[in-house]
Amino acid sequence: MKRSQRWLLLFLAVMIALGAAWQFVPLADAQARLTALPAKGIGYESIDAPLSDSERVIFGDASVLKRAYRVGSDRFSVIVIDGTRNRHAVHDPMLCARGGGWSIAARAPFALPGGAGELVTITKGDQTSEVLYWFSDGVDRHASPTSYWLQSTLRRLTFGASGEEAVLVLLQAEPGRAIDWRRLLSDRFMAATAF
Amino acid sequence: MRDVPWAQLAVLACCAVQSRRLPIEWMKHTPYERFGWIALAVWLIPLAMRPWSRDPRPTAMWPSYVGLVLAFIGTVGDLNAIIYVGTAFAAAALLPPGWRWLAWLACAASWWTAFGYLLTSQSTTVVATSRIAVAAIGVALVLLPLSRAVRSSPTTTEVPT
Fold first, then answer.
1. A148, part of any domain
2. How many CB atoms lie within 10 A of CB B48?
3. Domains held by chain A: number
4. Out of A22-26, A175-179, B42-46, least confident range
């Protein structure tokens, strides 16, 4: 075997050892921010929704909060995914919507404290629904899956020094019913949570 | 038959193991990932033909190093897309580099999940067809010049004595 080949094998061995050692460094998760979301309060209440079998497979070890909220006459579901333990559980929500047979009718930026989310109108047959989503590390909010991937990768490469884990927050209105998201988030919901 | 590049093959095997989620993405993920395996099979044709190739140019070691570093970053950073790029580099290390090689390497995107993600505005049929077409273009770029060279090289009976 040539010397250049031996050097490559040595480099391979070092990379494998380093990669294995990396996994033992614990990474702080966003569990505290998930549990901070109140299940009920003045003027609103919720019930925990069970994960479907396919969701359980997709989310794996990720921490997931799934609730159905009722705020006055508004009804909507909330899904928050913390991918610290399974980064691959966090996808581009629109890719999942398309995969689920929904079509995107409209999408627009939605201003939030510390950035912006995205408000999307999706349709499937006669059904129409609104989805509002964003990625948040508790300070900055954005709706870019690419930025999320870079953010989470950088965090893992720096052992968490680059910032808190970003979670995906996804709010979906009951099909066929419009929600004044601006009023909902400014009056009640956003104020009650660290998202 | 040329020498077996054991070290480059070991790097490719390591990167392939790290890419183990790829078949799951092709089979079970969104419809946009369908037929990625066909694109990979097509893209790998130049590698499968390498042991019988008459191309005298030597391979290079640097693509293996690049592939390994990318696979490492993708693994510890938990980002499969980078691992797949690394795997493509590790596979490309088994062919002699050049500009056609570079184009073929770029066509590895045809079997990446990012390909389907970037084309979600298209129908799934268009995405699947594009995958196979891009892989085939990459293979043609590498193999066609070699097949021409084989056809035009004089045989022993044609060589004047």
1. yes
2. 9
3. 1
4. A175-179
**Dihedral pair phi/psi, residue B43, rounded to 5°:** -60, -30
pLDDT exceeds 90 at position A117: yes
Calculate the alpha carbon distances from A67 to A32, A173, B89 in Å: 17, 12, 44
Residues of A in contact with B20 (CB under 8 A): none
Assess if residue B156 is contained within a domain.
no
Whether ipTM > 0.95 holds is no
Residue B57 pLDDT = 87
Interface of A with B (CB under 8 A): 1, 4-6, 8-9, 11-12, 15-16, 18-19, 22-23, 87-88, 92, 94-96, 98-99, 149, 152-154, 156-157
Note whether B138 and B110 are within 8 A (CB). Answer: yes
Q: What is the pLDDT of residues A127-167, one digit of tens each?
A: 899 999 999 998 899 999 999 999 999 999 999 999 999 99
Q: Is B63 helix (H, G, I), strand (E, B) or coil?
A: helix
Domain that holds residue B104: 6-149
Total tally of structural domains belonging to chain B: 1
Residue position matching structure tokens 């921010």: A33
CA-nearest residue to A97 within chain B is B30
Residue A36 domain-assigned (yes or no): yes
* Residue A185 and residue A144 in contact, taking contact as beta carbons nearer than 8 Å: no
**Do the domain assignments include residue A187?**
yes
Asked if the structure places residue B155 within a domain, the reply is: no
- Report how far residue B70's alpha carbon sits from residue B144's, in angstroms, rounded to the nearest whole number: 30
Q: Does residue B19 belong to the interface with chain A, where contact is any CB pair within 8 Å? A: no
Domain that holds residue A46: 28-191
Residue A9 lies in a domain: no
Within a domain: B154: no
Residue A3's contacts (CB-CB under 8 Å, 6 or more residues apart) are: none
Distances (CA, A) of A177 to A69, A116, A128, A181, B158: 14, 23, 8, 12, 82
Task: Write out the two tokens for B126.
Answer: 């268009």
B93 within 8 A of B59, measured Cβ to Cβ: yes
